[in-house]
Amino acid sequence: MADPVTPFIQEVDRLSPRTAIVVGSGLAGVTAGFYETASIAFADIPGLASPTVHGHSGRVAVGRWEGAPVLIFFGRLHFYEGNTWEVVTAPVRLAAKLGVKVLVLTNAAGGIHPSLDPGSLMAIRDHITLLNRDDWRRLAAGARLRNLYSPSLISRMQYHEVTTGQELLVGTYAGLTGPCYETPAEIRALRAFGADAVGMSTAKEAETAVGLGLEVAAVSCVTNWAAGLGDAPLAHSDVLANAKLAVGRMGGLLRHLVCQGSNRVGVRLA
Ligand code: HPA
Description:
- The structure is a single chain.
- With 270 residues, the chain is of the alpha/beta class.
- The protein has one domain: 3-Layer(aba) Sandwich (Rossmann fold).
- 30% of the residues lie in helices and 25% in strands.
- It contains 9 helices and 9 strands.
- It has helices at residues 5-15, 85-88, 90-97, 136-140, 151-163, 184-193, 203-211, 236-243, 247-259, and strands at residues 19-23, 34-41, 59-65, 68-74, 102-111, 121-129, 169-175, 197-199, 215-225.
- Strands 5-8-7-6-9 form a 5-stranded mixed beta barrel, surrounded by 5 helices.
- It is globular, with a radius of gyration of 18 Å.
- Hypoxanthine is lined by residues 108-110, 181-182, 198-200, 223-224, 226, 234, 239.
């Protein structure tokens, strides 16, 4: 059988993307306009697994977005699917190995802060995870520093939103393991801790990336009020449906991050 890895890596080498994006639950449409030149299934990459969650495709693609080379992970691997943290963070290590310098993580999240209605976006400034029992080596390596999420990328995102007449909220993400949504009491506790949004991904990926020297930005798409803050019970189908509300805005933000300062082709200077 033909080896799917070699031609993919050759194409990555040819384009040398500086930026990688991880596309979270229900957000596949955010890359409208991305022109893919090669892709590979997670299942074909040693060390990765196939996502088992509806709304996650499990494919990594390379190509150009408005001329800028970019690597895009469509879907991610979660701890709640039975993966070890090693597997959850394998795509990040792969991106670093392929020469990526900037990692942009996206996710779906429950809104805790009163300003975060379903359909709004939040740039992540910092996170709370209580998942670090296995992390002594990572701690020793200094991966949990101040400014885990790049202040300059946050500023760039805020600037972009201002130019489109919108304000980008910036806040703290609580990264839990799932698979269950939280109880209302857990959300009250997270709010008291200072969390603005809650989800089941991103934090470990960001720590791994920073440990490898990457610059990281992360954006949550708020798909629901967190448990106990809205009327309806939480459901994954609502998460997927509401993620669509923010796809256009999130797409503009990501395109801006990818296209700024990259080695674009096809751009004519006057
Ligand atoms: N909690 C945890 N993860 C989530 C939520 C939530 O409310 N919404 C989307 N992902």
